[in-house]
């Protein structure tokens, strides 16, 4: 087709015509052009071919529509419809392409986020973990470099702890004066995105020239908040084909940065908690004389009388509560701890005074220095002269905050998974379902509770399919060991309906051993229904064309037979007039005349045929039913 109409239609649709197929999202292929086949094949096998959304121009005849069967275009238009339909079809195809691309990107982001979360949970090698995070982010976003920079209390110096393009880079100190984007993130605690980095006002002249020289188009810097302060920055730079960062990508990167910050803090805090706990257990194991334990145990220990007044407080407890043993002696327990909920603390002490031991009760207290602590307290009866209760406690403030952050991250991920329109299903190695999101409920007809309590993963597939999928996951041919690339399968709905889906899947490993498998499923029922409707339209078109051929043939046959029949009837009638009824030849001539009239009636019916109707003839053979095929004209 001519370039000018295409340019005009694309402009009205808000699109731009490009010469390089690698820069295109939509492709309009003219299947009516002579010798178009090689060009179409070259287009579809190009690097960008699998990502193109096709619109086909076909001739309005059976061969034209048959030519698009293998292409499966998003839309079809004929030359007669070009002036009126092309703009509308381009707009619809562009919308469908954007929706498909957005779904694919969201699915990829979610898969990467699940992988990173699994790595955070099982990895103990922090350096390898951080490099893996930056490398996978750079690969997925197709950017030049992703870097993790840690900052101290000031904003003068930072340390690069991981870079996507250099596995060996770590502990590289940098002057933050050369990185105003990092300084701005530390100052505000908010992401900084520079889409036109070479001209962004945040950068000085020196930085702009450096950015332009390296071919950097966009910069994104995301904060890593730890204990309410920005202790690190995730820095990403886009160059080459990547021109900018979308809003969706910034939201995704913010989530990754938050999860990374939690993982970094978890590694530090958990190590501290485990070390303190081991020290306490070792000291408890060496407990011999009561006084030695009381003086040197790492946990706080207080001896209370019957009135909950402090008889003695060990050094660890005094340090923890910002007081001294002499100051605490004789004071009521509430007075030195100032609990937020004194009822919880007193119920603990009262239970011990009644002879009941209580363990691990969390109590929030305030110290004289103004600190708010969460103490895990245990109380047991101690009958020794005027002593009534021994109370031990340890500071779990950081551990509880860590648990809250992990819980919030878990809740966020669960909301993210549940908000996906695709079904996400995870099952352990025995087929027990451990994750069944809202998309899976809509697709399969079961609630999450029903799926987890009553279903086995095998029941979600037709017989034998689940075993085949697990074999593909464990093999190297469908995306690598532990991964399954996009494939078409079927899920079983609760009603027994088979639901066609596109799926990807992976096996999650813990310590090198298979833990569970997770699959992401996209419902194809709407697409299959659309394909079925298109097939029905093609069948109706084929039937219409068949009727047209029959009508044309009938008209031609009637026209051609009428002339010789007219001659036969005319000559037979002349012979009858010259013969008498008693003549020998009169009867044969009369039979010829009547049969010719009968043939004329048949020809008249043939000329009135307007549809294709058949009837049984001999055995299974079918012949044209002249009466039905022409009766509606009567």
CATH architectural group of the largest domain: 2-Layer Sandwich
Oligomer: single chain
Terminal Cα span: 47 Å
The tally of beta strands, per DSSP, is 21
CATH topology of the largest domain: Beta-Lactamase
* Percentage of residues in helical conformation: 40-55%
Strand content: 15-25%
Task: Characterize the overall form.
Answer: elongated
Brief write-up:
InterPro entries: Biofilm_reg_signaling, GAF, GAF-like_dom_sf, HisK_dim/P_dom, HisK_dim/P_sf, PAS, PAS-like_dom_sf, PAS_4. With 634 residues, this protein is α+β, with helices and mostly antiparallel strands.
Explained architecture:
The chain folds into 5 domains: 101 residues, 3-Layer(aba) Sandwich (Rossmann fold); 142 residues, Beta-Lactamase (2-Layer Sandwich), CATH 3.30.450.40; 101 residues, 2-Layer Sandwich (Beta-Lactamase), CATH 3.30.450.20; 109 residues, PAS domain (Beta-Lactamase); 90 residues. The protein is of the alpha+beta class. It contains 20 helices and 21 strands.
Using brief descriptors, characterize the structure shown:
PAS_4; PAS-like_dom_sf; 24% strand; alpha+beta; 5-stranded antiparallel β-sheet; 47% helix; Beta-Lactamase; 634 residues; histidine kinase; Rossmann fold; HisK_dim/P_sf
Topology (SSEs and partners):
Layout: H1 3-12, E1 26-30, H2 37-44, E2 53-58, H3 62-66, E3 75-78, H4 82-122, H5 126-141, E4 145-151, E5 157-163, E6 172-175, H6 180-188, E7 192-194, H7 205-213, E8 216-226, E9 229-239, H8 247-285, H9 290-296, E10 300-305, E11 310-313, H10 315-320, H11 325-328, H12 333-337, H13 342-353, E12 358-366, E13 372-384, E14 387-395, H14 397-419, E15 423-428, E16 433-436, H15 438-444, H16 448-454, H17 465-474, E17 483-492, E18 498-510, E19 513-523, H18 525-578, H19 586-607, E20 614-616, E21 622-624, H20 626-631
Parallel strand pairs: 1-2, 2-3
Antiparallel strand pairs: 4-5, 4-9, 5-6, 7-8, 8-9, 10-11, 10-14, 12-13, 13-14, 15-16, 15-19, 17-18, 18-19, 20-21
Helix pairs in contact: 1-4, 4-5, 4-8, 8-14, 18-19
Catalytic activity: ATP + protein L-histidine = ADP + protein N-phospho-L-histidine
Pfam families: GAF_2 (PF13185), HisKA (PF00512), PAS (PF00989), PAS_4 (PF08448)
GO biological process, one term: regulation of DNA-templated transcription
